[in-house]
Design a protein that fits this description.
By secondary structure, the chain is α/β, with parallel strands linked by helices. It contains 12 helices and 15 strands. The chain has a 7-stranded mixed β-sheet, sandwiched between helices. Strands 2-1-3-4-5 form a 5-stranded parallel β-sheet, sandwiched between helices. A 3-stranded antiparallel β-sheet has the order 11-12-13. The chain is globular and about 60 Å long.
Length: 392
């Protein structure tokens, strides 16, 4: 009887140990709501790859306090109502601990409200609209990439100094990101002495840019600045080339997501000379970036762009913050992320506590063939601008 009781006690102890170990190794679930189809699918692919590479590395090194990351992907189609539905599913059914991936700025704003109501944190690595960390900021929303204001500040100051001609025409998709990015470009160009010769806002996913090309031709600009992205940029620039506007005199510039590693090959040289300002360029000459680029190429047989790099670095911020917070409790995790500084392929980044915007050093890059070459740099402190969030 004594022997039986001892065996029973030992069995209970073993079960308790196994259950305890399983609980300790419960995965940290990250919901990735990103466009895997449609015009912004090339961006979503880089988001997915960046997340997968970081998670593979972190899990192979023991995870976060022994817990592995687990990724759950949902296709948001760059459509805010779809993004909200997919985020609700991830939060309510899959019980994810964190959210990321949103590309469309409208999606980020909408999913940010869902994250706040569900007491979870959302981090965008792509969306540009200044309102995300400004007028419509949320205590549960963070951004680790450069916003439209930062891109515009860095790019326009370089353009005015280095590109002949002061006549500018602006074009962007007709939704939050396109209009806010274009507005930032227009305001900075006017402030710096350039002239605004007109603007157009085709719908997201536009197939025919002919009506807008007519407007551009009539405006006779020296520079076209675009806030299009993904396949929309492919169609815009190839049609500009077909209509003979890219004759060597007209310069192209615009948002960092307009021309990327994912869509440049599809343009048949139409993007040659395109200028943009971003928080990342593949030619950043640091050991950390060289290691990241080599790992990315080996894993996916493709080069990373800013979306892949920013998403990759986010998971190292997650790791650092979760370790500091001792888990994924939202309040503790939020406190651990505010004012956090961490290492990324492009150098150190810091999350500003007041608005949850990352301070990112900016590089001005020019398309040469199928590659990007850095032609200028702007420190993050100069580009980030004032904190305009007053909700928290």
């Amino acid at each position: 009887m004594i022997k039986s009781k001892l065996l029973g006690a030992s069995a209970i102890a073993v079960v308790t140990l196994v259950v305890g170990s399983a609980q300790a190794a419960d995965p940290i679930k990250v919901g990735v709501v990103t466009p895997l189809s449609g015009s912004y699918a090339p961006i979503g692919k880089q988001v997915r790859w960046g997340a997968e590479l970081a998670v593979k590395e972190i899990n192979a090194a023991g995870g976060v306090n022994g817990r592995p990351f687990e990724l759950l992907f949902e296709d948001e189609e760059a459509n805010p109502p779809v993004a909200v539905r997919k985020a609700e599913k991830l939060l309510q059914q899959d019980k994810v601990d964190l959210l990321t991936g949103t590309v469309n700025s409208g999606s980020t704003l909408a999913v940010g409200q869902i994250a706040e109501r569900n007491d979870r944190i959302l981090v965008t690595t792509v969306s540009y609209a200044p309102s995300i960390t400004g007028a419509q900021c949320s205590p549960n929303v963070f951004r680790v990439n450069a916003n439209a204001f930062m891109q515009s500040t860095a790019l326009t100051s370089w353009l005015i100094k280095n590109v002949p001609g002061k006549r500018y025409f602006f074009i962007g998709p007709d939704y939050e990101m396109g209009r806010s990015t274009t507005a930032a470009f227009q305001a900075d160009i006017k402030r710096l002495g350039g002239s605004d010769e007109g603007s157009s806002f085709p719908p997201l996913g536009a197939k025919d840019f002919t009506p807008y090309i007519g407007q551009i031709r009539a405006a006779r600009p020296d520079v076209i600045m675009t806030a299009t992205a993904g396949n929309d940029t492919v169609r815009l620039l190839t049609q500009l080339k077909e209509y003979g506007l890219l004759n060597g005199k007209l310069r192209l510039a615009g948002a960092a997501g307009a021309v990327t590693q994912e869509n440049i090959s599809a343009m048949g040289g139409a993007a040659e000379g395109f200028l943009s300002a971003a928080g990342y360029s593949i030619d950043i000459d640091t050991p950390a970036n060289k290691k990241f680029v080599a790992a990315f190429k080996k894993e996916f047989q493709a080069e990373p762009d800013l979306f892949g790099a920013d998403t990759y670095s986010l998971f190292y911020l997650f790791k650092q913050a979760i370790e500091k917070a001792g888990g994924t409790d939202t309040a503790k995790l939020r406190a651990a992320m505010e004012n956090a500084t961490w290492d990324t392929p492009q150098g150190k980044k810091t999350i500003r506590k007041g608005d949850h915007q990352a301070v990112v050093d900016m590089v001005v890059v020019e398309v040469k063939g199928k590659d990007f070459s850095t032609v200028g740099k702007v420190p993050g402190e100069e580009a980030v601008g004032p904190d305009k969030c007053d909700r928290f």
